[in-house]
Amino acid sequence: MFLMVCSWATALTPPRGLWSDWEPYLGTWQGTGTGDPGQGRGEFRFELRLQGVVLVRHSYAENATTEDKPANRHEDLMVIYPDADSKKTRTDYGDDEGHVIHYEVALSAS
């Protein structure tokens, strides 16, 4: 069986400085924690991809075994992009639990 899906898209050349407000977040961030409900660690990365047209965040969290739950790992992926039609920044989020969420994004000055 062969399935082909097509859609029309607007070509976008990223304007200079498109992601300048996001620069403080670029890179890899790690964290660890202990306490109730248990011990965990995680990491997320923000990086420019596709020649600077999109910003991608990939993250994971690993939680240790507790008396109520086995150890687990959660992963998600977020693609942030400028919407040429609305002139707004949009985000598509998906995770390993099957969630898919579409956002409109705005950074605040604070």
Layout of helices and strands:
Layout: E1 27-33, E2 40-49, E3 54-63, E4 72-83, E5 88-95, E6 100-105
- Strand content of the residues, in percent? over 45%
How helix-rich are the residues, as a percent range? under 10%
Quaternary? single chain
Return residue spans where pLDDT drops below 50 for at least 5 consecutive residues.
none
User: What radius of gyration results from the CA coordinates?
Assistant: 18 Å
N-to-C SSE string, H for helix and E for strand: EEEEEE
Give a quick account of the main beta sheet: strands, pairing sense, barrel closure.
6 strands, antiparallel
Could you tell me the mean pLDDT? Answer: 84
**Apparent shape:** elongated
The N- and C-terminal alpha carbons lie at a distance of 52 Å
Please list the strands of the largest sheet in the order they lie side by side. Answer: 1-2-3-4-5-6
Number of strands: 6
Describe the structure.
It is a single chain. With 110 residues, this protein is mainly β. It has a domain at 38-105. Helix content is 0%, strand content 48%. It is built from no helices and six strands. It has strands at residues 27-33, 40-49, 54-63, 72-83, 88-95, 100-105. A six-stranded antiparallel β-sheet has the order 1-2-3-4-5-6, with no helix packed on it. The radius of gyration is 18 Å and the shape is elongated. It starts with 26 loop residues before the first strand and ends in a 5-residue tail after the last strand. The mean pLDDT is 84.
How is this structure best summarized?
With 110 residues, the chain is mainly β. The protein has no helices and six strands.
